[in-house]
């Protein structure tokens, strides 16, 4: 197989330290277009640091980070913002929906910094809300929505512009198990439609249910089901998840 | 073969040799989006916005009010002066060389009349007589009223008006007839003129033939009781010297005539003559008190400054409270500049709100004062534009530091706050 395009995420020997504390040690991770994977680990394992670096919200102390082919060392802060606007969608545990703002406007803000006009943003937002099953909740404000619905609004906002990479940070962390299952199902659907999805979670069950699993412990990648050190059966399963 | 492993021949992943994609380019936000995003922060906290804007509004209202009231007063004065005429000059005797009371020569009227630019000339002459309601009033209670001899052409010369009766004419000026100034009439309890209305003047009864309207240009006339020149000389021991000469002059020549009027009225002792222009006196008296206006403007300025500090405070709190929003916006692709613009726009909107409110409030204060004083309202456009401009400067200054702080906040730190 030849590489016809850049991987969405390409981390090579990436470390991040805060003073004396090393949050991530020489991590190597490649995520290809169309993958669905979990980055799993207990709190303090470096998951959030990994998410911030993959999301270009933070720069590594050492190592190379390439996002969709862009070497982030060569990009200024302004370029990174543009890269996030065009390439990366974020979903957070706390939803981050502004109170008093109808779902449609919250979702439309997902493309606020993309240079698209307001009418187009709102049109895409309506489509995205229908896609996540909230076609009847367009004008509901956050306090009128359940936790699961809020997270679906947040997902609609993240995938509005069809970004190549969707980063979900504990997307089910604030939800009951039923709402969590709906959200996970939605992420699966997005993956099947072609979006690359990285789920950061501490939940091993969720991690195990995804095609690829990357385990972090004490800032190191302890296990990657896509690599040779994985049990044979799991590697096959991981490849099955790739397209 | 796994996709994630390196190429077996080179030891290097094959995609590393692909040409890098073009550098991503941050998109610009349209002005409408800038205003909408700036306003979103305000809509979420209406009470706080109202209170911070109020601080600015009070400052602007004070300044607009001061300027508006003083402009309205000046405008009103100018209108009144235009109606009264600014071409009236008065000549009166000053002090003589030895410090005593000088008097104008009896020929002065004729000499002034000879100046080509003079339109009308008339005169009053003070007598020593007193006027009373009736013959029972004690002599000492003259009420500060003066009895003066008046020329029959005085009314036309000074442009005074009667509220009742008639002015002295060739006939009545020879008989015991009197015209009362408004204050004099009030003091004597006279409300109308007529053959049966009489006052006790210089030891005999005088018939009140006319009442004068209050005279704004020559308020001294209000406390005069005016009798004919001839009857004053005959009955009241009047010496015949005019004590006030009133001249109407061609508008264009007022200054020239004013300069030579003294010498014309009394060529022998020109220094013993006082020449004045009543409209100047009125203008000086009514001119707005600059000290008070300055003080009020200063207070307005201080209030504006305090309002600005209030806006800065609101913005600092707003930035602190909305760290996670800032983080979210950065994750959505906002550049530092766009975050800075957002908070600056918010501060500007906030103070512009205060500025517009202040201008309206200031206009309201001016209208209230002007209608209470019976004046028309004039608020200069430059004051309103200046008010709004000042608030924008203040908003910019107040929002600058908070906006800078918001923009400098690292996105990871912003997102970590919940």
Could you give the order of the helices and strands of chain B? HHEHEEEHEEHEEEHEHEHHHHHH
CATH topology category name of chain A: Rossmann fold
The total strand number of chain A stands at: 10
Largest sheet of chain B: 11 strands, mixed
| Topology, number of strands of chain B | 11
Q: State the largest interface.
A: A-B, 54 and 44 residues
Give the amount of beta strand of chain B, in percent.
Answer: 5-15%
Q: Average the pLDDT over all residues of chain B and give the rounded result.
A: 87
- Share of residues in strands of chain A: 15-25%
Contiguous runs where pLDDT drops below 50 for at least 5 residues of chain A: 230-243
How many DSSP helices of chain B?
13
Structural class of chain B: alpha+beta
**Class by helix and strand content of chain A?**
alpha/beta
Which strand order do you get reading across the main beta sheet of chain A? 6-7-8-3-9-10
**Biggest sheet details of chain A:** 6 strands, mixed
Distance between the termini of chain B: 44 Å
* Morphology call of chain A: globular
Rg over C-alpha atoms of chain A, rounded to the nearest angstrom: 18 Å
Going by CATH, what is the homologous superfamily of chain A?
A: P-loop containing nucleotide triphosphate hydrolases
Q: How much is the radius of gyration of chain B in Å?
A: 39 Å
InterPro entries (chain A): AAA+_ATPase, ABC_transporter-like_ATP-bd, ABC_transporter-like_CS, ABC_transpr_LolD-like, MacB-like_ATP-bd, P-loop_NTPase
Keywords (chain A): ATP-binding, Nucleotide-binding, Transport
Domain ABC transporter (chain A): 9-243
Pfam families (chain A): ABC_tran
């Amino acid at each position: 197989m030849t590489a016809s395009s850049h991987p969405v995420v390409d981390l090579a020997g990436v470390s991040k330290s805060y003073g004396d504390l090393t949050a991530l040690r020489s991590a190597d991770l490649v995520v290809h277009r169309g993958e669905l994977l979990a980055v799993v680990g207990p709190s303090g394992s470096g998951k959030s640091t990994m998410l911030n670096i993959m999301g270009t919200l933070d720069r590594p102390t050492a190592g190379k980070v390439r996002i969709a082919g862009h070497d982030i060392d060569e990009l200024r802060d302004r370029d990174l913002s543009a890269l996030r606007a065009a390439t990366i969608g974020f979903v957070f545990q706390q939803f981050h929906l502004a109170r008093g703002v109808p779902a449609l406007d919250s979702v439309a803000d997902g493309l606020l910094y993309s240079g698209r006009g307001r009418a187009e943003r709102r049109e895409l937002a309506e489509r995205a809300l229908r896609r996540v099953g909230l076609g009847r909740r367009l004008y509901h404000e956050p306090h009128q929505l359940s936790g699961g619905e809020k997270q679906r609004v947040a997902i609609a906002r993240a995938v509005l512009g069809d970004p190549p990479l969707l980063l979900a940070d504990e997307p089910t962390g604030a939800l009951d198990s039923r709402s969590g299952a709906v959200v996970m199902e939605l992420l699966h659907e997005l993956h099947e439609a072609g979006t690359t999805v990285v789920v950061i979670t501490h939940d091993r069950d969720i991690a195990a249910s995804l095609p690829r699993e990357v385990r972090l412990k004490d800032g190191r990648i302890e296990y990657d089901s896509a690599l040779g050190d994985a049990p044979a059966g799991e590697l096959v399963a991981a490849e099955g998840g790739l397209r | 073969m796994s996709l994630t492993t390196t190429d077996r021949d080179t030891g290097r992943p094959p995609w590393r040799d692909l040409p890098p994609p073009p550098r991503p380019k941050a998109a610009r936000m349209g002005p409408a989006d800038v205003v909408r995003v700036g306003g979103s922060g305000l809509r979420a906290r209406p009470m706080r916005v109202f209170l911070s804007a109020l601080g600015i509004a009070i400052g602007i209202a004070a300044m607009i009010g001061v300027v508006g009231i003083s402009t309205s007063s000046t405008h009103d004065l100018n209108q009144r002066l235009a109606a009264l005429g600014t071409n009236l000059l008065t000549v009166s005797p000053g002090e003589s060389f030895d410090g005593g009371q000088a008097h104008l020569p009896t020929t002065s009227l004729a000499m002034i009349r000879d100046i080509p630019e003079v339109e009308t000339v008339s005169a009053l002459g003070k007598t020593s007589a007193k006027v009373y309601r009736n013959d029972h009033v004690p002599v000492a209670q003259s009420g500060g009223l003066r009895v003066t001899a008046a020329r029959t052409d005085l009314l036309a010369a000074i442009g005074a008006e009667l509220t009742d009766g008639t002015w002295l004419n060739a006939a009545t000026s020879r008989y015991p007839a009197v015209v009362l100034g408004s204050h004099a009439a009030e003091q004597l309890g006279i409300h109308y003129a007529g053959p049966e209305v009489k006052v006790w003047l210089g030891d005999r009864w005088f018939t009140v033939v006319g009442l004068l309207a209050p005279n704004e240009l020559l308020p001294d006339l209000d406390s005069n009781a005016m009798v004919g020149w001839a009857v004053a000389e005959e009955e009241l021991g009047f010496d015949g010297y005019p004590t006030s000469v009133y001249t109407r002059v061609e508008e264009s020549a007022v200054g020239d005539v004013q300069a030579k009027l003294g010498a014309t009225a009394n060529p022998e002792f020109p220094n013993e003559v006082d020449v004045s222009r009543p409209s100047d006196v009125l203008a000086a008296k009514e001119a707005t008190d600059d000290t008070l206006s300055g003080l009020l403007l200063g207070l307005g300025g201080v209030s504006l400054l305090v309002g600005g500090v209030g806006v800065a405070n609101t913005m600092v709190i707003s930035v602190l409270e909305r760290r996670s929003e800032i983080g979210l916006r950065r994750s959505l692709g906002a550049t530092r500049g766009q975050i800075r613009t957002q908070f600056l726009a918010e501060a500007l909107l906030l103070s512009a709100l205060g500025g517009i409110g202040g201008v309206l409030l200031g206009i309201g204060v001016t209208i209230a004062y002007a209608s209470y004083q019976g004046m028309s309202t004039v608020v200069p456009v430059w004051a309103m534009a200046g008010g709004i401009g000042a608030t924008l400067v203040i908003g910019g200054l107040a929002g600058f530091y908070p906006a800078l702080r918001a923009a400098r906040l690292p996105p990871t730190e912003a997102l970590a706050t919940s």
